[in-house]
Amino acid sequence: MNYDVIVVGGGHAGCEASLSSSRMHHSTLLITSNIKNIADMPCNPSIGGPAKGILVREIDALGGEMGVNTDKSLIQLKMLNTKKGPAVQALRAQADKITYPKNMLDTLNNQDNLTIMEAFVDDLIVSNNKVMGVILENGEKIYSKAVILTTGTYLKADILVGDKRNPGGPHGEKEAKNLSDNLRKYGLTIQRLKTGTPQRLDKGSIDYSKLQREDGDNELRTFSFDFKIEEQEPCYLTYTNEETHNIIKENLKKSSMYGGYVRGIGPRYCPSIEDKVVRFADKERHQLFLEPESRFYDDIYLQGFSTSMPYEIQEKMVHSLVGLEHAKILKYAYAIEYDAIDPLEMKKNLENKILENLFTAGQINGTSGYEEAAAQGLMAGINAVLKIEGKEPFILGRDEAYIGVLIDDLTTRGTKEPYRMLTSRAEYRLLLRHDNADLRLRQYGYELGLISEEKYHKFQDKCAKIDELMEYLKNNKIVTSENNLLEKLGTSKINDGITLYDLLKRPEITINTLIDSGKIPNNYSKEVIEQVEISIKYSGYILKEEKEIKRMKDLENIKIPEDINYDEVINIASEAKDKLKKVMPISLGQASRISGVNPSDIAMLSVYLKKEKKKHE
């Protein structure tokens, strides 16, 4: 068998990778250990959240599937941080664990150029450090022009509960035993990481009268720019208490982590409940959400209560919580360890630096979360195709997308723990908003062939309406004879002839108030109004960020040759030299973001590059 692209692993990264490569008209084989686990959500039944929700919007804007599939499979949807500015607002959805994988599998099965195979991959076919395909567990060889590994948490996976360690994937299924050892054989650095998941409870055993109800938003938004949703289900809120904390403290040594049984490094920003109790000893309580996993069965996910305690201790912990005194545990919490590669060994197009034609995406790259995985999968699929076609890689800047921030962080700074996308990681977050993901990225998706003509024309119409409304606001004024209008708008007297554009800079004035007053035609969509209003209200801050981006782009435009010899660069620190050799940055801008490389090192490197350029000229 021979394919253009082979994708190994059918999780969120694998689905996006195989869809993007096949939609770009290249024969693609998706190999997964169990077709029933395609697009599985082994942990939280949610998609989105702070920063992560914007990743999903960006995936959708580029032509990926996660946003559409989430909207199709929705249980509940909320816009977070609505009391804060638009830079930190993001959607978070509860997705149905039955319909989400089913809908994704239907999409994969109906996709041209895509074949799905159930098998285990043990090794790669490698010749002269070039990957030419994969070797299955039974010894069968399948050839391809590019291979994308999206193995999730399955590489030499171990399930940990108390002092027990058992080989197996998230559902106790067979782990991938040999692949990571073979990757090490080819020179890749392998690291050990850990994550975990909380209990699943029987819905009928919970006393909801003692819990705080949490409904979704009344306004039904969507992740996808091309989809609409309907009804939602409630979630509920409870808290840990003194009794819970005492049970945890008294049994700390029985947990896998504090008992010394864990070898992998866990996620800093998604700690277990015992880790929270130890690290935040001053906190009297921690909030826990009870989230339905599906409309089709009664399992309730106890969000925030991840642990690796023995089962009998988990029983005590759960029953100490208000409303859960008699809760029945259907599935106990556990920790899982797995192998991952060092992301510093990746190029920015997600191709491996050691093995040509090998791309990686998702948790194998050291990330946590479905959204981070899907974003990398999409980019890996695109770049594998571009590599095959002999075209330039598709690399998003930190000023263009959270996807750009994610990949730049991994390939420039690396990670020794499961990486989670956070709003604070993006220095230009006012430009990288939930509302403008299509304006930033849809053109790219169209040019790559991932956006249909119908969707693209819809996008063009939206852009035209935004421009039309912006011009109207700039060209229409309010004169002093309209002071009665100003009173109606609830604002003070103004200078004669102020434009509607400048008037809208006042916090108390909105486009909708001007529409209600008759000053603006009522023929613009909510999305157009939102986009124009944010652009005007935050214009000063946006201009400031754009100036900073221009300054940084000057550094990004100074390219570093692939064959540079850092030993020839004088007066840079030894640590900086070591880090530069390992990362091999492609530009001075990327070099400036490497931990351990100081401004003085960048200055010396800049001088060296200028001298080398003059020599060649």
Quick overview:
The protein has 617 residues and is an alpha+beta fold.
Q: Helix tally?
A: 20
Percent of residues in β-strands: 15-25%
Largest sheet: 7 strands, mixed
**Any idea what the shape is?**
globular
C-alpha end-to-end distance: 49 Å
How much helicity do the residues have?
25-40%
Which architecture of the domain at 200-335 does the CATH hierarchy give at level 2? Answer: Beta Barrel
- Poorly predicted ranges (pLDDT <50, ≥5 residues)? none
Could you tell me the CATH topology label of the domain at 200-335.
Elongation Factor Tu (Ef-tu), domain 3
Could you characterize the architecture of this molecule?
By secondary structure, this protein is α+β, with helices and mostly antiparallel strands. Strand 8 (130-136) and strand 9 (141-149) form a beta hairpin. Helix 2 runs parallel beside helix 9 and helix 11 (437-447) packs across helix 12 (453-475). The mean pLDDT is 93.
Protein traits:
617 residues; Arc Repressor Mutant, subunit A; 7-stranded mixed sheet; 6-stranded antiparallel sheet; 35% helix
Secondary structure elements and pairings:
Blueprint: E1 2-8, H1 12-23, E2 28-32, E3 46-48, H2 52-62, H3 66-72, E4 74-80, E5 90-95, H4 99-109, E6 114-118, E7 121-127, E8 130-136, E9 141-149, E10 158-161, E11 164-167, H5 179-185, E12 190-197, E13 200-202, E14 212-214, E15 235-239, H6 242-250, H7 273-279, E16 287-292, E17 299-303, H8 311-319, E18 329-331, E19 334-341, E20 358-360, H9 370-388, H10 402-412, H11 437-447, H12 453-475, E21 477-478, H13 483-489, E22 498-499, H14 500-503, H15 511-516, H16 526-537, H17 539-556, H18 574-583, H19 588-592, H20 599-616
Parallel strand pairs: 1-2, 1-9, 2-6, 9-20
Antiparallel strand pairs: 3-5, 4-5, 7-8, 8-9, 10-11, 10-19, 12-19, 13-17, 13-18, 14-15, 15-16, 16-17, 21-22
